[in-house]
Amino acid sequence: MIVADFSRPFWPLFLHVLGAMTTVGAILAVVVLSYAAWNRPEAAFLRRATFAALLAAIPFYVLLRVFAEVMYSDEKDGFGGKDPTWVGIGYITSDAGILLLLITIGVGYWWKRSEKTIAGRIVAVLATLILLLLTVAMLAMSGKWGS
Amino acid sequence: MDKTQWLLMLHIAAAFCLVGGSTAAAVLNALALRSERPSEAAFLLKLIRRSLPVIFAGVLGTLIFGVWLWHDLGFGFGTGWIWAALVFWALASALGGRGGRHQAQVREAAEKEAAAGDTMSAELRARLRDPKALAVNYAAGVATLAVLVIMIWKPGS
After folding, report:
1. Structure ipTM
2. What are phi and psi of B118, to 5 degrees?
């Protein structure tokens, strides 16, 4: 498996990993900002900053997901019709992550417009969940769980 | 999972901490540059400190597990791409540290202005957007990216 990792084409793997790492960074910024806003609900700049950081995560997530698909289509024949556990975990977590990210952006927009404290706290919890999902996916894929 | 897969997983996890933490710091810094008030800029620059433990874990973890993998996978002492990655890793760490020191100085200046009326002066605006400091930050990002390129490409292996 290690040898197989080393023989992968450069660009899809590089862009997939870069997308994943920067997505983690953007979501980490959202988590830091939204928890900072938890105790400062009056701070409008934190609402704006959190929403901007959420929007920044979109292109990174697209990079992650598109090049995951490119690699999967290149390599799926090698799995002999049955995907390894780590591929399944990657799909489940990235699809759930996209859904959660879109919901979080929606709640973030509501927070920015309505200034409701509860919306900010929902953003903090959802962003934490996305970060946890990304961490599980990263560990499963780098450790090749179940292979 | 065998020992090599464990080491690879921990090495990659550390790389995620390094690049992810640096990206979070870059996002917070970019938001601070757009601040309207010194108090906002100071608060956002202060938040960068929350990403530092993640970055430090990444810096140390990539080195420790990377060197361990180097030995475990049996690459020779003269493997060029590993040395090249180490050079860029050291460069990224040094430049990142320098950029961090500039951010700390600007934060202190922003805190002083926040306490004295909270109106953004031209001087503080200029320090926030100092081209030399931005160049150092960009260079640190490019050096980090170079490590990632070398690690995935493994030229010559």
Report:
1. 0.94
2. 55, 45
Let me know: does A47 contact A121? Beta carbons within 8 Å: no
Nearest to B136 by CA among B96, B83, B105, B93: B96
pTM of the entire predicted model: 0.94
CA distances in angstroms from A125 to A7, A90, A139, B96, listed in the order given: 39, 21, 21, 30
Tokens of residue B140, six digits = 């640190």
pLDDT 10s digits, B92-137: 999 999 999 999 999 999 999 999 999 999 999 999 999 999 999 9
How close A81 gets to chain B, by Cα (Å)? Answer: 22
Helices B38-47 and A10-38: angle between axes, nearest 10 degrees: 120
Q: Residue B98: which of B58, B143, B66 has the closest Cα?
A: B143
Residues of B in contact with A34 (CB under 8 A): none
**Contact list, A43 vs chain B (CB under 8 Å):** 43
pLDDT digits (tens, 9 = 90+) for B2-17: 899 999 999 999 999 9
A146/B contact by beta carbon, under 8 A: no
